[in-house]
Structures are given as structure tokens and as C-alpha cells.
Design a protein that fits this description.
Number of strands: 19
Largest sheet: 17 strands, antiparallel
Distance between the termini: 24 Å
Structural class: mainly beta
Order of helices and strands: HEEEEEEEEEEHEEEEEEEEE
Length: 403
């Protein structure tokens, strides 16, 4: 852990000196204003991907008068990892003039891999075989290689002069070239099915590739001051998604996502003293979802849930998640460095194993360091170390706050 922290501090020193930021600050009606782009030689880390190297850009601007228009943001990544993965993504939150429209995009192309452990909250870390019905199914760590193509775009219209938005979205996920295997071939019992393969066969979905294509109806309350690093107020979202076969899905289904975040400012003089709270529920309402499309830890839009566990460590038809974080400045009169202490908890259900929500709760906790490299835009580099149950832990290096 000390070695990782030293590497992080060395990287931050280099980024702070070498990053070239382009800034335009004059407001011009009906034009992009106060545009800034911070291109960085990207160095990041999380347990699922390992160390990641490449190019990252954090971009922010205003599509109208900053007094009446929220700041728009886009984060782009082009990364290669020490686990021989390619990670290409663009994630955007755009507000048009006077906040009349809100556009939310999540585009990804991954050639990647990650372990999976089976469904539910009580899956073991280590390899094992369980009897489910008449079949022997592998539980515990199983490796998966796959390619992901994702195109999610949501368009919302502001309701009157309120903080509320209503809109529709289109969501496409294509998983291809899926292969499940064990790192240690000596452990494999070829009469046992991998969790991914057994589940998909049970619902009539191919095991090597599948598509989820659907439309969503969305409602959002956007009351945060700056979305990438809020100091106050709150945010709420409800999204009901329908994935019919006639739009290309392998199986019809519908899901409901609920997301609420609140920021309690503890000091008028030092806005960085904050308690941030996050609650999320993701539920399968009808039909069946392919294995990799099921609600899972670390698969929210920015991949920030479940610090203390690797992405995909827990998965199931339904998910409940909560997190509380205390954020604070580390210097008496400057905002360059900050710290955080966080705790989180998650629970998953599984029809395959009969596990219900809240039967098992998976807690996590940890600490973090913040370096604010643009005070005006609140662009922040974050480093967190999280701990979970049963020896799970992870180091996380990212741009902007976790939520």
C-alpha cells in the first residue's frame, strides 16, 4: 500500500507540472463558453483492470450563461492495462443554454477481462462447485474474457423553471467473444458449468455473445452546484428501461434504476467540509437479463460503487447499494489537497440460488486523498484505498469525485 501511495504522489507531481490546460473565460451568447480541456498522460488503477496507461481528457464548458446554466463535462479515456486490456470510453453530462436540455452519454469499447464469482451476495472468493438443481455449477473466482460495445444516450427536457427533467434514452450493450475459464486448469471439473454459462443457458441466451437493446423513460432532479464535485444540495434519478426482442435484445426484459445523492455542507467558510450520501437500487422488473447485464458492483456509469471490491465481484437480479463519505480539506487555507473517509454496503439477490435482498450485506470502507488541479472547475484527481470482507481490498486512482 505504501508503494502504491508513493507511485501516486509521484504521478500527481508530474501531472500538476506538465498538464496543459486551455481555458476561455468570456461569455458569448449562444456559443460554447469558458471551455477548458485538461489532457493528461493517464495513469490509473483499480483491481479489475490493474494499472492503466494511456491518455485521458477531462473537459468542461458552459453552453450558456454560467449564471443560469450548469457546467457541462466530458471525460474521455484511451487506455491499455497491465492485464492486456483496451479501455476506450467517453462519458458526458451536457447542459444546453439556461439548463433547458440535459444530454447524458456513456459510450464504451472494451477488449477486456475480469473475474466473476457467481450470483448473489454470499459467493465465495475461492473456487468451488455447488449443486444447483440437477447441475454442478462452479462458484468462486472464474475468469472471463469479453468485448463490450456500449452506446447509451439520454435526452431530457427541463420541466418549466424547476430543477426537474423528463426524457427518453436509447441503450445498447453488445457482449462478444465471451470465454470463461479458470486460471489454474488443474482445478477444473469438466462436468461442472461456469456460473455465467449455466445462468445464460437456463434463460435461453447464448454463452459466447448477446445483445441488450432498449429504450428508457427517465426523470432527473439536478440540484447539485457542480456535478463532478458537488459542495451542496442533491441529485435524484429514476429510470425505467424496456428491452424488447424486436429492438435486438436476445431476451425481453425491463428494469428499474433508482439513484439518490445528498451533500451536507458542514462549513460556510470551507465548502470542502462535506458529508456525501448515496443510495441506489437496481431491479429486474420483468423477463430475463443476460449474465453480464445483471446489476453488478462497480458497473454504474462511472464505475465508482463498491470501493473495497473489484468490479463485478457481486452480481444478481436485484441490487441495493448505499455509501456515506466525509470529505475535508487537508490545508488550513488552501484547497489543493483534501481527504476522505468512506463506508459502503451492498446486497444482491439471485433467483438461481434462492438468495433474497438483505440476506447478506457486503460492507466496505476506506480512506482517500484528493488533489484539486483546477479550483474553478473543481477538477480533482482522486486516490482511494478500500477494504471489503474476506480479504478483499483495492486501490483506486481516478479523475473527479466518486459521486
Amino acid at each position: 500500500m505504501k508503494k502504491l501511495q508513493l507511485i501516486f504522489l509521484f504521478c500527481i507531481a508530474g501531472l500538476s507540472v506538465n498538464a496543459q490546460e486551455i481555458d476561455t473565460v468570456t461569455y458569448i451568447p449562444n456559443r460554447i463558453n469558458n471551455f477548458s480541456i485538461l489532457p493528461l498522460p493517464a495513469i490509473a488503477y483499480n483491481p479489475a483492470n490493474g494499472w492503466m496507461f494511456g491518455v485521458a481528457a477531462s473537459t468542461s464548458w458552459f453552453m450558456g450563461d454560467p449564471i443560469s446554466t450548469h457546467q457541462s463535462n466530458l471525460v474521455f479515456n484511451f487506455l491499455y492495462t497491465t492485464k492486456k486490456q483496451w479501455i476506450i470510453s467517453s462519458k458526458s453530462n451536457v447542459f444546453l443554454a439556461d439548463d433547458q436540455w440535459n444530454l447524458i452519454g456513456d459510450w464504451r469499447y472494451f477488449i477486456t477481462s475480469q473475474p466473476t464469482y457467481g450470483l448473489g451476495s454470499s459467493t465465495p472468493n475461492d473456487f468451488g462447485v455447488e449443486q444447483i438443481g440437477q447441475e454442478s455449477v462452479i462458484v468462486g473466482e472464474q475468469q472471463m474474457d469479453f468485448t463490450l460495445i456500449r452506446f447509451h444516450e439520454t435526452i431530457l427536457r427541463r420541466v418549466g423553471f424547476s430543477k426537474f427533467y423528463l426524457g427518453v434514452g436509447y441503450h445498447l450493450d453488445i457482449h462478444q467473444k465471451i470465454e470463461s475459464y479458470l486460471i489454474d486448469d488443474d482445478l477444473i471439473d469438466y462436468n461442472a458449468e461456469f456460473s455465467h454459462d449455466y445462468y445464460n443457458k437456463s434463460i435461453g441466451v447464448p454463452v459466447d455473445q448477446y445483445t441488450l437493446s432498449g429504450i428508457s423513460i427517465n426523470g432527473i432532479m439536478e440540484n447539485r452546484d457542480v456535478a463532478v464535485s458537488p459542495y451542496e444540495h442533491n441529485y435524484a434519478m429514476i429510470s425505467y428501461k424496456i428491452n424488447p426482442e424486436f429492438l435486438g435484445s436476445d431476451k425481453s426484459s425491463s428494469t428499474l434504476l433508482l439513484d439518490y445523492r445528498h451533500y451536507f455542507n458542514l462549513s460556510e467558510n470551507r465548502k470542502r467540509h462535506i458529508i456525501a450520501a448515496w443510495a441506489m437500487g437496481n431491479f429486474l422488473v420483468s423477463g430475463d437479463l443476460p449474465y453480464m447485464n445483471l446489476p453488478s458492483i462497480g458497473w454504474d456509469m462511472f464505475g465508482r460503487s463498491g470501493r473495497g471490491y473489484s468490479q463485478g465481484r457481486f452480481r444478481g437480479e436485484n441490487m441495493l447499494y448505499s455509501e456515506v463519505e466525509y470529505r475535508f480539506p487537508l490545508l488550513p487555507n488552501k484547497d489543493l489537497f483534501g481527504g476522505t473517509i468512506f463506508v459502503n454496503a451492498a446486497s444482491f439477490s439471485s433467483k438461481m440460488t434462492g438468495e433474497k435482498l438483505m440476506n447478506t450485506i457486503n460492507p466496505g470502507y476506506g480512506v482517500g486523498l484528493r488533489v484539486m488541479i483546477n479550483k474553478e472547475k473543481r477538477t480533482t484527481i482522486t486516490a482511494d484505498y478500500g477494504f471489503g470482507q474476506k480479504g478483499n481490498s483495492g486501490f483506486y486512482l481516478n479523475i473527479n469525485e466518486s459521486f
